């Protein structure tokens, strides 16, 4: 098993929810960082999630092309081929944060493409897509989520939604200072009323609990993963009291966590905050900044230590084997893979590969 089938992905997420662990979702922007992520998951004997951002998708198509669908499908095709060489782990492919202005040029065409793949008896290119409604009012967020959840069912993919706003900056999008950084149980119940709890199609949800995208110094932000526990408890209570019409109470009989949750802005978070978030139902944690840094730190080390070999200076010709992109690329990949291993250990997915 290599790239997850839709059934396998659903099984992975259930295994994480019931097993009390989560998968790292590693952002990649090249075949090199994709290979690094696979290397890390294999080393950790962990299944995992590999994702491309809106900027990463455009970059993957070639900077002179800048087409997000092309970049995404190219990455998925490459991943499907190389992942065959890692028979003991399963990896799901995901598209990360798609804000409202990118839906028509990115996630909607991908969902249409995948629905067509399903109609032709193939597997979808990706296993899940994220709709980032954090910049629009909650009702509009849920209107669009409803539409995309329908389309996700036709594509046999899982939808990821974001409720509330995440601070910091990602791909040039900066949340405003008065953005809603903490979701409430009422928000969660509104979500369950509109989207159900799995019976209208499977989705995973990023409720905000003070998350910030990017690296930050300790103390800059107050993460409150306990909020996720309140959300699970109060939503479950609302289901059992019949306050969420149509919610599949039967499906929830074997869990105290009605929502499968996503942790955004995982880089730089403390082990305690991560552990509590996972206990409260987080099954996926996004990691981008820390793996970017791990890759670049190793490359910078090589360049500074070998500056007179990677450059032609003082009339010399440098040293081919030091400036061959593979020589520093392998170091970047191995350092990033090591950071992926740490993420698997922190989230508890290490050693849990289903195969
Ligand atoms: Zn987010």
Could you give a short account of the major beta sheet?
A: 8 strands, parallel
State the domain count. 1
Mean pLDDT: 92
Number of DSSP strands?
A: 11
At the fourth level of CATH, the homologous superfamily is Aldolase class I
Tally of helical segments: 13
Shape type: globular
Output the CATH topology: TIM Barrel
Bound molecules: zinc ion
**Series of secondary-structure elements, N-terminal to C-terminal:** HEHEHHEHEHEEEHEEHEHEHHHH
CATH class: Alpha Beta
CATH architecture: Alpha-Beta Barrel
Structural class: alpha/beta
- Distance between termini? 7 Å
- Poorly predicted regions are none
The spatial strand order of the largest sheet comes to: 8-5-4-3-2-1-11-10
Strand content range = 5-15%
Q: Work out the helicity level.
A: 40-55%
Radius of gyration: 20 Å
Short description:
The protein has 355 residues and is of the alpha/beta class. The protein is built from 13 helices and 11 strands. The chain has one domain: Aldolase class I (TIM Barrel).
What can you see in these coordinates?
The protein has one domain: Alpha-Beta Barrel (TIM Barrel), CATH 3.20.20.70. The protein has 13 helices and 11 strands. The protein has helices at 6-19, 31-44, 54-60, 68-83, 107-119, 138-155, 185-195, 226-240, 271-279, 289-305, 307-310, 320-323, 325-347, and strands at 23-27, 48-52, 91-98, 128-131, 158-163, 167-170, 173-174, 203-207, 212-213, 261-263, 282-287. The strands form 2 sheets. It has an 8-stranded parallel beta sheet, with helices on both faces. A 3-stranded mixed beta sheet has the order 7-6-9, with no helix packed on it. Helix 3 (54-60) crosses helix 4. Bound molecules: zinc ion (ZN).
């Amino acid at each position: 098993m290599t790239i997850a089938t839709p059934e396998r992905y659903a099984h992975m997420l259930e295994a994480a929810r019931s097993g009390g662990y989560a998968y790292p979702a590693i952002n990649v922007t090249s075949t090199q960082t994709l290979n690094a992520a696979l290397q890390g998951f294999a080393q950790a004997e962990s299944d995992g999630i590999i994702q491309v951002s809106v900027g990463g998708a455009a970059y993957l198509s070639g900077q002179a092309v800048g087409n997000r669908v092309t970049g995404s499908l190219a990455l998925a095709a490459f991943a499907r081929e190389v992942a065959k060489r890692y028979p003991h782990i399963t990896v799901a492919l995901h598209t990360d944060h798609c804000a409202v202005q990118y839906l028509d040029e990115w996630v909607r065409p991908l969902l249409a493409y995948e629905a067509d793949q399903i109609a032709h008896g193939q597997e979808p290119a990706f296993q899940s897509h994220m709709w980032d409604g954090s910049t629009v009012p909650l009702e509009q967020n849920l209107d669009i989520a409803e539409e995309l959840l329908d389309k996700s069912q036709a594509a046999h993919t899982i939808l990821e939604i974001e409720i509330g706003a995440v601070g910091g900056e990602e791909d040039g999008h900066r949340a405003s200072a008065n953005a809603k950084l903490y979701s409430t149980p009422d928000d969660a119940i509104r979500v369950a009323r509109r989207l159900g709890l799995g019976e209208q199609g499977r989705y995973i949800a990023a409720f905000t609990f003070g998350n910030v995208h990017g690296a930050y110094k300790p103390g800059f932000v107050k993460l409150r993963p306990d909020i996720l526990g309140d959300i699970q408890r109060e939503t479950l209570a609302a289901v059992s009291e019949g306050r969420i019409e149509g919610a599949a109470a039967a499906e929830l009989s074997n869990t105290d966590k009605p929502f499968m949750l996503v942790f955004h802005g995982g880089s730089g978070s403390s082990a305690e905050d991560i552990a509590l978030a996972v206990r409260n139902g987080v099954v996926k944690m996004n990691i981008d900044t820390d793996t970017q840094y791990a890759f670049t730190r190793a490359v910078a080390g090589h360049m500074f230590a070998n500056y007179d070999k990677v450059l032609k200076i003082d009339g010399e010709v440098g040293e081919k084997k030091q400036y061959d992109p593979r020589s520093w690329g392998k170091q970047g990949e191995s350092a990033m893979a090591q950071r992926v291993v740490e993420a698997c250990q922190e989230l508890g997915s290490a050693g849990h590969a289903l195969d």
